[in-house]
Amino acid sequence: MIWLSGDNFASFFDEQTGLHVFVDSFDNEHFAVRIGSAEESTSVGSVKATSDEELNAKLKKCYELHMGSAWQ
Prior knowledge:
Elements: E1 9-14, E2 19-24, E3 30-36, E4 41-48, H1 52-70
Antiparallel strand pairs: 1-2, 2-3, 3-4
């Protein structure tokens, strides 16, 4: 589950892959998604969401799509 702090930033750690997912937003509607380590991450896209449920679903899909392409 993802939610943004008052600073419009959130992150989570995938223990299976050792990767972090970083989410930034300036308006809590458009979200930039980066994946990598605390030292280096790569932009993998952006999502637009108007609710926590929609955001969580879109972030999960974005992460899964990126991880699928990373292993092909």
